[in-house]
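Class prep. Sample record?

___
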Amino acid sequence: MTSSAGKAPASEPFSPEFAARTVRSRALFAEAKTLIPGGVNSPVRAFGSVGGTPLFISRARGPWLWDADGNRYIDYVGSWGPAILGHAHPEVVSTVQEAAEQGLSFGAPTAGESALVSAIQAALPGLDMVRLVTSGTEACMSALRVARAYTNRTKIVKFDGCYHGHADMLLVKAGSGVATFGLSGTRGVPDDAARHTLTVPFNDVAAVEQVFAANRNEIAAVILEPYVGNAGFIPPEPGFLKALREITAAAGTVLIFDEVMTGFRVAWGGAQRIAGIVPDMTVLGKVIGGGMPIGAYGGKREIMQLVAPAGPVYQAGTLSGHPVAVACGLKTLSILREPSFWTALARQTSKLVSGLTEIARTRGIPFIAGSEGGMFGFFFHPGPVRSYAEAKMADGERFKRFFWGMLERGVYLAPSAFEAGFVSAAHADADVDMTLEQAARVMDSLRS
Protein backbone atom coordinates (compact mmCIF):
# COMPACT_ATOMS: atom_id res chain seq x y z
CA MET A 1 0.00 0.00 0.00
CA THR A 2 1.02 3.59 -0.53
CA SER A 3 0.95 6.23 2.11
CA SER A 4 -2.00 8.59 2.47
CA ALA A 5 -0.01 11.11 0.45
CA GLY A 6 -0.14 8.68 -2.49
CA LYS A 7 3.58 7.97 -2.73
CA ALA A 8 4.28 4.59 -4.36
CA PRO A 9 6.82 2.25 -2.75
CA ALA A 10 9.94 1.66 -4.83
CA SER A 11 8.76 -1.87 -5.67
CA GLU A 12 5.62 -0.66 -7.44
CA PRO A 13 5.77 -0.52 -11.26
CA PHE A 14 3.94 2.81 -11.47
CA SER A 15 5.12 6.32 -10.69
CA PRO A 16 4.41 8.29 -7.51
CA GLU A 17 2.33 10.67 -9.64
CA PHE A 18 0.11 7.83 -10.84
CA ALA A 19 -0.11 6.51 -7.28
CA ALA A 20 -1.43 9.86 -6.16
CA ARG A 21 -4.11 9.74 -8.85
CA THR A 22 -5.32 6.22 -8.03
CA VAL A 23 -5.59 6.18 -4.24
CA ARG A 24 -9.21 5.04 -4.27
CA SER A 25 -8.50 2.00 -6.50
CA ARG A 26 -5.74 0.84 -4.17
CA ALA A 27 -7.98 1.23 -1.13
CA LEU A 28 -10.77 -0.73 -2.82
CA PHE A 29 -8.33 -3.48 -3.80
CA ALA A 30 -7.02 -3.76 -0.24
CA GLU A 31 -10.60 -4.14 1.01
CA ALA A 32 -11.51 -6.63 -1.73
CA LYS A 33 -8.57 -8.89 -0.84
CA THR A 34 -10.09 -9.41 2.61
CA LEU A 35 -13.40 -10.51 1.08
CA ILE A 36 -12.65 -12.13 -2.31
CA PRO A 37 -9.84 -14.57 -3.17
CA GLY A 38 -7.02 -12.41 -4.54
CA GLY A 39 -9.34 -9.41 -4.45
CA VAL A 40 -10.88 -10.23 -7.85
CA ASN A 41 -13.56 -12.48 -9.31
CA SER A 42 -11.50 -13.52 -12.33
CA PRO A 43 -7.71 -13.96 -12.04
CA VAL A 44 -6.40 -11.85 -14.93
CA ARG A 45 -8.07 -8.77 -13.42
CA ALA A 46 -5.55 -8.87 -10.58
CA PHE A 47 -2.70 -7.54 -12.79
CA GLY A 48 -0.70 -10.62 -11.82
CA SER A 49 1.67 -10.53 -14.79
CA VAL A 50 2.26 -6.77 -14.80
CA GLY A 51 2.43 -6.17 -11.05
CA GLY A 52 0.96 -3.26 -9.19
CA THR A 53 -2.65 -2.65 -8.28
CA PRO A 54 -5.62 -3.12 -10.62
CA LEU A 55 -7.86 -0.19 -11.40
CA PHE A 56 -11.40 -0.33 -10.06
CA ILE A 57 -13.77 0.91 -12.76
CA SER A 58 -16.79 2.98 -11.89
CA ARG A 59 -18.36 3.63 -15.32
CA ALA A 60 -17.80 3.44 -19.06
CA ARG A 61 -19.17 5.07 -22.19
CA GLY A 62 -18.15 4.76 -25.81
CA PRO A 63 -14.41 3.96 -25.97
CA TRP A 64 -13.79 5.33 -22.48
CA LEU A 65 -13.48 3.97 -18.95
CA TRP A 66 -13.44 5.97 -15.70
CA ASP A 67 -11.81 4.55 -12.59
CA ALA A 68 -12.92 4.99 -9.00
CA ASP A 69 -10.72 8.09 -8.70
CA GLY A 70 -12.33 9.72 -11.74
CA ASN A 71 -9.42 9.18 -14.18
CA ARG A 72 -10.41 8.54 -17.80
CA TYR A 73 -8.82 5.93 -20.12
CA ILE A 74 -9.21 4.86 -23.73
CA ASP A 75 -10.28 1.24 -23.40
CA TYR A 76 -8.80 -1.52 -25.58
CA VAL A 77 -10.06 -4.38 -23.41
CA GLY A 78 -13.76 -3.87 -24.11
CA SER A 79 -14.86 -6.18 -21.28
CA TRP A 80 -12.61 -8.79 -22.97
CA GLY A 81 -14.46 -8.55 -26.25
CA PRO A 82 -18.22 -7.98 -26.03
CA ALA A 83 -18.18 -4.17 -26.08
CA ILE A 84 -17.87 -4.13 -29.86
CA LEU A 85 -20.23 -1.14 -30.16
CA GLY A 86 -18.47 0.70 -27.37
CA HIS A 87 -19.70 0.93 -23.80
CA ALA A 88 -23.28 1.92 -22.92
CA HIS A 89 -24.44 2.20 -26.54
CA PRO A 90 -27.72 4.18 -26.28
CA GLU A 91 -29.83 1.78 -28.35
CA VAL A 92 -28.55 -1.24 -26.45
CA VAL A 93 -29.06 0.38 -23.05
CA SER A 94 -32.62 1.33 -23.99
CA THR A 95 -33.33 -2.23 -25.11
CA VAL A 96 -31.96 -3.65 -21.84
CA GLN A 97 -34.08 -1.25 -19.80
CA GLU A 98 -37.21 -2.21 -21.69
CA ALA A 99 -36.50 -5.93 -21.26
CA ALA A 100 -35.77 -5.56 -17.52
CA GLU A 101 -39.08 -3.79 -16.99
CA GLN A 102 -40.85 -6.94 -18.19
CA GLY A 103 -39.12 -9.07 -15.56
CA LEU A 104 -35.55 -10.18 -14.94
CA SER A 105 -35.93 -13.94 -15.29
CA PHE A 106 -38.75 -16.40 -15.83
CA GLY A 107 -37.20 -19.87 -15.91
CA ALA A 108 -39.48 -20.53 -18.86
CA PRO A 109 -39.21 -20.25 -22.66
CA THR A 110 -39.44 -16.87 -24.37
CA ALA A 111 -39.85 -15.85 -28.01
CA GLY A 112 -36.61 -13.90 -27.75
CA GLU A 113 -34.57 -17.09 -27.40
CA SER A 114 -35.63 -18.38 -30.81
CA ALA A 115 -35.14 -14.93 -32.31
CA LEU A 116 -31.54 -14.78 -31.06
CA VAL A 117 -30.79 -18.29 -32.33
CA SER A 118 -32.24 -17.34 -35.73
CA ALA A 119 -30.03 -14.24 -35.84
CA ILE A 120 -26.97 -16.34 -35.06
CA GLN A 121 -27.91 -18.90 -37.72
CA ALA A 122 -28.22 -16.14 -40.30
CA ALA A 123 -24.51 -15.43 -39.84
CA LEU A 124 -23.30 -19.00 -39.29
CA PRO A 125 -25.33 -21.29 -41.56
CA GLY A 126 -23.56 -24.41 -40.27
CA LEU A 127 -25.50 -24.15 -37.00
CA ASP A 128 -28.60 -26.26 -37.63
CA MET A 129 -29.49 -26.14 -33.94
CA VAL A 130 -28.23 -24.02 -31.02
CA ARG A 131 -28.48 -24.28 -27.23
CA LEU A 132 -28.16 -21.05 -25.22
CA VAL A 133 -26.25 -21.17 -21.93
CA THR A 134 -24.83 -18.56 -19.55
CA SER A 135 -21.06 -18.58 -20.20
CA GLY A 136 -18.33 -19.64 -22.60
CA THR A 137 -17.03 -22.19 -20.10
CA GLU A 138 -20.44 -23.84 -19.91
CA ALA A 139 -20.76 -23.83 -23.69
CA CYS A 140 -17.35 -25.46 -24.25
CA MET A 141 -17.77 -28.20 -21.66
CA SER A 142 -21.26 -28.96 -23.00
CA ALA A 143 -20.13 -29.09 -26.62
CA LEU A 144 -17.38 -31.56 -25.74
CA ARG A 145 -19.80 -33.74 -23.78
CA VAL A 146 -22.09 -33.91 -26.79
CA ALA A 147 -19.18 -34.63 -29.14
CA ARG A 148 -18.11 -37.55 -26.96
CA ALA A 149 -21.62 -38.94 -26.96
CA TYR A 150 -21.94 -38.52 -30.72
CA THR A 151 -18.67 -40.32 -31.48
CA ASN A 152 -18.75 -42.75 -28.54
CA ARG A 153 -15.10 -41.79 -27.92
CA THR A 154 -13.41 -40.16 -24.94
CA LYS A 155 -10.24 -38.36 -26.07
CA ILE A 156 -10.14 -34.71 -27.11
CA VAL A 157 -7.42 -32.61 -28.71
CA LYS A 158 -6.76 -28.99 -27.79
CA PHE A 159 -3.96 -26.61 -28.69
CA ASP A 160 -1.27 -25.18 -26.42
CA GLY A 161 -2.28 -21.72 -25.24
CA CYS A 162 -5.92 -22.00 -26.28
CA TYR A 163 -8.35 -21.40 -23.43
CA HIS A 164 -11.82 -22.93 -23.42
CA GLY A 165 -12.97 -22.16 -19.91
CA HIS A 166 -12.13 -23.66 -16.56
CA ALA A 167 -13.71 -27.11 -16.84
CA ASP A 168 -11.36 -29.71 -15.36
CA MET A 169 -10.61 -31.49 -18.63
CA LEU A 170 -9.64 -28.22 -20.34
CA LEU A 171 -7.15 -26.79 -17.87
CA VAL A 172 -4.21 -28.33 -19.69
CA LYS A 173 -1.77 -25.84 -21.31
CA ALA A 174 -4.65 -23.40 -21.27
CA GLY A 175 -2.96 -20.04 -21.87
CA SER A 176 -4.61 -16.81 -20.71
CA GLY A 177 -4.92 -16.52 -16.93
CA VAL A 178 -3.21 -19.86 -16.41
CA ALA A 179 -0.28 -18.74 -18.54
CA THR A 180 -0.19 -15.40 -16.78
CA PHE A 181 0.64 -17.18 -13.53
CA GLY A 182 3.20 -19.47 -15.21
CA LEU A 183 1.22 -22.65 -14.51
CA SER A 184 0.86 -25.60 -16.86
CA GLY A 185 -2.43 -26.55 -15.21
CA THR A 186 -4.03 -26.01 -11.85
CA ARG A 187 -4.27 -27.74 -8.50
CA GLY A 188 -7.55 -29.37 -7.67
CA VAL A 189 -7.88 -31.11 -11.04
CA PRO A 190 -7.43 -34.89 -10.69
CA ASP A 191 -5.12 -36.54 -13.20
CA ASP A 192 -8.01 -38.69 -14.35
CA ALA A 193 -10.01 -35.61 -15.35
CA ALA A 194 -7.37 -34.45 -17.80
CA ARG A 195 -5.82 -37.72 -18.97
CA HIS A 196 -8.06 -37.88 -22.03
CA THR A 197 -7.01 -34.39 -23.16
CA LEU A 198 -4.22 -34.37 -25.74
CA THR A 199 -2.38 -31.15 -26.54
CA VAL A 200 -0.52 -30.07 -29.65
CA PRO A 201 1.09 -26.79 -30.79
CA PHE A 202 -1.10 -24.34 -32.69
CA ASN A 203 -0.35 -24.06 -36.42
CA ASP A 204 1.43 -27.43 -36.43
CA VAL A 205 -0.34 -29.74 -38.88
CA ALA A 206 2.32 -32.44 -38.56
CA ALA A 207 1.76 -32.64 -34.79
CA VAL A 208 -1.97 -33.03 -35.34
CA GLU A 209 -1.38 -35.83 -37.83
CA GLN A 210 0.93 -37.57 -35.37
CA VAL A 211 -1.54 -37.43 -32.50
CA PHE A 212 -4.29 -38.84 -34.72
CA ALA A 213 -2.00 -41.63 -35.91
CA ALA A 214 -1.15 -42.53 -32.31
CA ASN A 215 -4.80 -42.46 -31.19
CA ARG A 216 -6.61 -43.97 -34.15
CA ASN A 217 -10.41 -44.14 -33.72
CA GLU A 218 -10.15 -42.72 -30.18
CA ILE A 219 -10.43 -38.93 -30.65
CA ALA A 220 -13.93 -37.56 -30.12
CA ALA A 221 -13.23 -33.90 -30.84
CA VAL A 222 -10.70 -31.28 -31.75
CA ILE A 223 -11.41 -27.90 -30.15
CA LEU A 224 -9.56 -24.68 -30.89
CA GLU A 225 -9.71 -20.92 -31.00
CA PRO A 226 -9.39 -20.37 -34.78
CA TYR A 227 -7.55 -17.14 -33.95
CA VAL A 228 -5.83 -17.59 -30.62
CA GLY A 229 -6.70 -14.78 -28.21
CA ASN A 230 -5.57 -16.28 -24.93
CA ALA A 231 -1.86 -16.54 -25.70
CA GLY A 232 -1.79 -13.12 -27.27
CA PHE A 233 -3.19 -12.70 -30.79
CA ILE A 234 -2.01 -15.58 -33.01
CA PRO A 235 -3.70 -16.04 -36.40
CA PRO A 236 -3.92 -19.38 -38.19
CA GLU A 237 -1.31 -19.90 -40.89
CA PRO A 238 -2.61 -20.39 -44.44
CA GLY A 239 -3.99 -23.89 -44.83
CA PHE A 240 -3.98 -24.77 -41.11
CA LEU A 241 -7.74 -24.64 -40.53
CA LYS A 242 -8.41 -26.40 -43.85
CA ALA A 243 -6.04 -29.19 -42.83
CA LEU A 244 -7.85 -29.60 -39.51
CA ARG A 245 -11.15 -29.88 -41.35
CA GLU A 246 -9.75 -32.60 -43.60
CA ILE A 247 -8.05 -34.57 -40.81
CA THR A 248 -11.08 -34.56 -38.52
CA ALA A 249 -13.52 -35.40 -41.32
CA ALA A 250 -11.41 -38.40 -42.36
CA ALA A 251 -11.20 -39.63 -38.75
CA GLY A 252 -14.88 -39.19 -37.89
CA THR A 253 -13.86 -36.63 -35.25
CA VAL A 254 -15.99 -33.60 -34.35
CA LEU A 255 -14.29 -30.30 -35.21
CA ILE A 256 -15.27 -27.57 -32.74
CA PHE A 257 -14.47 -23.92 -33.33
CA ASP A 258 -14.44 -22.01 -30.05
CA GLU A 259 -15.53 -18.61 -31.32
CA VAL A 260 -16.37 -17.16 -27.92
CA MET A 261 -13.80 -14.47 -28.65
CA THR A 262 -13.74 -14.36 -32.46
CA GLY A 263 -17.43 -14.86 -33.18
CA PHE A 264 -18.91 -11.55 -34.39
CA ARG A 265 -15.57 -9.96 -33.49
CA VAL A 266 -13.29 -10.71 -36.42
CA ALA A 267 -16.14 -10.69 -38.94
CA TRP A 268 -19.88 -11.13 -39.33
CA GLY A 269 -20.01 -14.91 -39.12
CA GLY A 270 -16.72 -15.18 -37.25
CA ALA A 271 -13.46 -16.83 -38.19
CA GLN A 272 -15.22 -19.67 -40.00
CA ARG A 273 -16.68 -17.19 -42.45
CA ILE A 274 -13.22 -15.78 -43.18
CA ALA A 275 -11.73 -19.27 -43.58
CA GLY A 276 -14.61 -20.63 -45.61
CA ILE A 277 -14.80 -23.65 -43.32
CA VAL A 278 -17.86 -25.11 -41.63
CA PRO A 279 -16.95 -26.88 -38.37
CA ASP A 280 -19.18 -29.59 -36.96
CA MET A 281 -19.84 -27.52 -33.83
CA THR A 282 -19.33 -23.91 -32.79
CA VAL A 283 -19.11 -22.31 -29.37
CA LEU A 284 -20.11 -18.65 -28.97
CA GLY A 285 -20.31 -16.00 -26.26
CA LYS A 286 -19.38 -12.40 -25.46
CA VAL A 287 -20.68 -10.41 -28.46
CA ILE A 288 -23.90 -12.43 -28.81
CA GLY A 289 -24.87 -11.07 -25.39
CA GLY A 290 -23.80 -7.51 -26.14
CA GLY A 291 -22.13 -7.29 -22.73
CA MET A 292 -24.58 -9.40 -20.73
CA PRO A 293 -23.60 -12.92 -19.56
CA ILE A 294 -24.44 -15.48 -22.24
CA GLY A 295 -22.97 -18.35 -24.21
CA ALA A 296 -24.13 -20.77 -26.88
CA TYR A 297 -23.11 -23.99 -28.57
CA GLY A 298 -24.51 -25.52 -31.70
CA GLY A 299 -23.83 -27.44 -34.87
CA LYS A 300 -25.15 -30.17 -37.08
CA ARG A 301 -28.68 -31.30 -36.35
CA GLU A 302 -27.68 -34.95 -35.94
CA ILE A 303 -25.23 -33.94 -33.20
CA MET A 304 -27.39 -31.40 -31.39
CA GLN A 305 -30.44 -33.69 -31.27
CA LEU A 306 -28.52 -35.69 -28.67
CA VAL A 307 -28.99 -32.85 -26.16
CA ALA A 308 -31.74 -33.32 -23.54
CA PRO A 309 -34.67 -33.27 -23.64
CA ALA A 310 -34.45 -34.27 -27.32
CA GLY A 311 -31.73 -36.83 -26.56
CA PRO A 312 -29.75 -38.56 -23.80
CA VAL A 313 -26.99 -35.96 -23.16
CA TYR A 314 -27.98 -33.94 -20.12
CA GLN A 315 -27.24 -30.23 -19.90
CA ALA A 316 -29.36 -27.64 -18.12
CA GLY A 317 -29.26 -24.12 -16.72
CA THR A 318 -31.82 -22.14 -14.75
CA LEU A 319 -30.73 -18.84 -16.29
CA SER A 320 -29.99 -20.12 -19.81
CA GLY A 321 -31.55 -17.83 -22.41
CA HIS A 322 -31.85 -15.05 -19.82
CA PRO A 323 -34.40 -12.63 -21.32
CA VAL A 324 -32.42 -9.46 -20.64
CA ALA A 325 -29.21 -10.93 -22.05
CA VAL A 326 -31.11 -12.22 -25.08
CA ALA A 327 -32.62 -8.80 -25.76
CA CYS A 328 -29.21 -7.15 -25.38
CA GLY A 329 -27.66 -9.64 -27.81
CA LEU A 330 -30.43 -9.27 -30.39
CA LYS A 331 -30.06 -5.51 -30.49
CA THR A 332 -26.27 -5.77 -30.74
CA LEU A 333 -26.38 -8.25 -33.63
CA SER A 334 -28.94 -6.12 -35.47
CA ILE A 335 -26.47 -3.24 -35.49
CA LEU A 336 -23.59 -5.46 -36.62
CA ARG A 337 -25.36 -6.68 -39.76
CA GLU A 338 -24.28 -3.77 -41.95
CA PRO A 339 -21.19 -4.55 -44.10
CA SER A 340 -20.02 -0.97 -43.63
CA PHE A 341 -19.72 -1.64 -39.91
CA TRP A 342 -17.00 -4.23 -40.46
CA THR A 343 -15.12 -2.14 -43.00
CA ALA A 344 -14.89 0.76 -40.56
CA LEU A 345 -13.96 -1.45 -37.60
CA ALA A 346 -11.19 -3.23 -39.51
CA ARG A 347 -9.81 0.08 -40.78
CA GLN A 348 -9.55 1.53 -37.30
CA THR A 349 -7.94 -1.62 -35.89
CA SER A 350 -5.44 -1.78 -38.75
CA LYS A 351 -4.58 1.87 -38.21
CA LEU A 352 -3.77 1.16 -34.57
CA VAL A 353 -1.68 -1.94 -35.32
CA SER A 354 0.25 -0.45 -38.23
CA GLY A 355 0.94 2.67 -36.17
CA LEU A 356 2.31 0.69 -33.24
CA THR A 357 4.45 -1.39 -35.60
CA GLU A 358 5.96 1.68 -37.25
CA ILE A 359 6.67 3.36 -33.91
CA ALA A 360 8.55 0.28 -32.70
CA ARG A 361 10.41 -0.11 -36.02
CA THR A 362 11.73 3.44 -36.01
CA ARG A 363 13.05 2.92 -32.49
CA GLY A 364 14.69 -0.42 -33.20
CA ILE A 365 12.46 -2.31 -30.78
CA PRO A 366 11.67 -5.96 -31.64
CA PHE A 367 7.91 -5.95 -32.16
CA ILE A 368 5.27 -7.83 -34.13
CA ALA A 369 1.55 -7.11 -34.27
CA GLY A 370 -1.51 -8.32 -36.13
CA SER A 371 -5.26 -7.91 -36.31
CA GLU A 372 -8.46 -9.28 -37.79
CA GLY A 373 -11.66 -7.28 -37.72
CA GLY A 374 -11.78 -5.60 -34.31
CA MET A 375 -9.35 -7.99 -32.61
CA PHE A 376 -5.62 -7.31 -32.34
CA GLY A 377 -2.48 -8.19 -30.45
CA PHE A 378 1.24 -7.58 -30.28
CA PHE A 379 4.43 -9.06 -28.91
CA PHE A 380 7.79 -7.53 -28.07
CA HIS A 381 9.39 -10.16 -30.27
CA PRO A 382 10.95 -9.97 -33.76
CA GLY A 383 8.49 -12.59 -34.99
CA PRO A 384 6.99 -14.58 -36.34
CA VAL A 385 4.80 -15.77 -33.46
CA ARG A 386 2.87 -18.82 -34.61
CA SER A 387 2.37 -20.71 -31.36
CA TYR A 388 2.19 -20.42 -27.59
CA ALA A 389 5.80 -21.58 -27.31
CA GLU A 390 6.93 -18.69 -29.52
CA ALA A 391 4.65 -16.26 -27.66
CA LYS A 392 6.43 -17.18 -24.41
CA MET A 393 9.71 -16.08 -25.97
CA ALA A 394 8.51 -12.46 -26.19
CA ASP A 395 9.98 -9.82 -23.86
CA GLY A 396 7.59 -9.85 -20.91
CA GLU A 397 9.49 -7.21 -18.97
CA ARG A 398 9.29 -4.77 -21.87
CA PHE A 399 5.56 -5.45 -22.18
CA LYS A 400 5.14 -4.72 -18.49
CA ARG A 401 6.91 -1.36 -18.83
CA PHE A 402 4.85 -0.55 -21.94
CA PHE A 403 1.60 -1.46 -20.19
CA TRP A 404 2.24 0.83 -17.22
CA GLY A 405 3.57 3.64 -19.40
CA MET A 406 0.39 3.56 -21.46
CA LEU A 407 -1.89 3.27 -18.44
CA GLU A 408 -0.30 6.29 -16.80
CA ARG A 409 -0.97 8.19 -20.03
CA GLY A 410 -4.64 7.23 -20.15
CA VAL A 411 -4.62 4.11 -22.36
CA TYR A 412 -6.06 0.90 -20.89
CA LEU A 413 -4.60 -2.27 -22.44
CA ALA A 414 -5.08 -5.87 -21.33
CA PRO A 415 -2.93 -6.41 -18.20
CA SER A 416 -1.23 -9.47 -19.68
CA ALA A 417 1.02 -10.13 -22.66
CA PHE A 418 -1.05 -13.28 -23.21
CA GLU A 419 -4.31 -11.52 -24.05
CA ALA A 420 -5.68 -10.07 -27.27
CA GLY A 421 -7.00 -6.51 -27.42
CA PHE A 422 -10.18 -5.10 -28.92
CA VAL A 423 -11.20 -2.00 -30.83
CA SER A 424 -14.84 -0.92 -30.85
CA ALA A 425 -17.00 1.01 -33.27
CA ALA A 426 -16.84 3.89 -30.79
CA HIS A 427 -13.07 4.35 -31.23
CA ALA A 428 -12.68 7.41 -33.43
CA ASP A 429 -9.61 8.55 -35.35
CA ALA A 430 -8.83 10.98 -32.55
CA ASP A 431 -8.74 8.12 -30.01
CA VAL A 432 -6.36 6.04 -32.10
CA ASP A 433 -4.21 9.09 -32.84
CA MET A 434 -3.96 9.86 -29.12
CA THR A 435 -3.08 6.22 -28.42
CA LEU A 436 -0.26 6.26 -30.98
CA GLU A 437 1.02 9.59 -29.71
CA GLN A 438 1.32 8.18 -26.21
CA ALA A 439 2.77 4.91 -27.50
CA ALA A 440 5.57 6.84 -29.21
CA ARG A 441 6.47 8.49 -25.92
CA VAL A 442 6.42 5.22 -24.01
CA MET A 443 8.46 3.37 -26.62
CA ASP A 444 11.07 6.13 -26.47
CA SER A 445 11.65 4.98 -22.90
CA LEU A 446 11.85 1.28 -23.90
CA ARG A 447 14.91 1.57 -26.13
CA SER A 448 17.27 0.99 -23.21
